[in-house]
Amino acid sequence: xxxxxxxxxxxxxxxxxLESIFAxxxxxxxxxxxxxxxxxxxxxxxxxxxxxxxxRFSFEAAMLRLGGQVIGFxxxxxxxxxxxxxxxxxxxxVACYCDIAVMRHPKEGAPRVAAxxxxxxxxNAGDGxxxxxxxxxxxxxxxxxxxxxxxxxxxxxxxxxxxxxxVHSLIKALSRYEGxxxxxxxxxxLKIPDYVRKGVLIKNNIPFVEVTxxxxxxxxxxxxxxxxxxxxxxxxxxxxxxxxxxxxxxAEKMKLAKEDMMVLHPLPRVNEIAVEVDDDPRALYFExxxxxxxxxxxxxxxxxxxxx
Length: 308
What we know:
The chain has about 300 residues and is α/β, with parallel strands linked by helices. The protein has helices at about 15-30, 55-65, 85-95, 110-115, 135-145, 165-175, 195-200, 215-220, 235-245, 250-255, 285-305; strands at about 45-50, 70-75, 100-105, 120-125, 155-160, 180-185, 210, 225, 260-265. Strands 7-6-5-8-9 form a five-stranded parallel β-sheet. Strands 2-1-3-4 form a four-stranded parallel β-sheet, with helices on both faces. α4 links the parallel β3 (about 100-105) and β4 (about 120-125). About 45% of the residues are buried.
């Protein structure tokens, strides 16, 4: 069903196709030893034009745990990009050697350029402040495993909603599920961009409110999705310093939340979630990180057309 496809944004796959990936991830989690040789003889290319820890490691771990191999770069200056090679030419060359590629790039749309230049499946691992679809798959799998299904919930998104590509992807993906409401928590300078507000929320008649105070929102949330204020997205240090500590989730604030509220975070965190929250059973962000490896295993298998 998904063989040969690329994943550039969450809407590339139908809800049923996403469900097939989540069901496969569940089977992998239940019995990882059964999948140790599924990708033997297959090669994944990691084309990371921007720094990454979790996303790159989880893709590499996913392929290695499936019995495949990985080649690539995590610093573009160590590749022919430093000589001025185009994204299209890099991808076409990589496709001569590899079966599937994953790309992170600071420019919006770069993975689409890569996918359009080859028949090899290309996975977007984050393009600028635009999309991060595999993080969204991770988020959805975590919610699904905890709640049993996706839908009928109020989701709070807190922090940098303007530049946060994980937030934009998650809103787009959740917009297709029943009974979803959003509470958007941010300072005025970091509000959700219009292409998401008008193009997704208003267009699809999805209920949402925008607030600046996290404490007034906490009591009504089923999911709290925290994000960091990203220094790399700011043009001046003064604005970053002024806004970086706007929202810090600590044990005191957690007392205001429901007993079964899920706290998610795409990581890395800086100080927006106090370490004391880590021991709260509602804090799922490290479990979320582990789920990222499993859902990427399922995604790789699906795009390569390997039965599971």
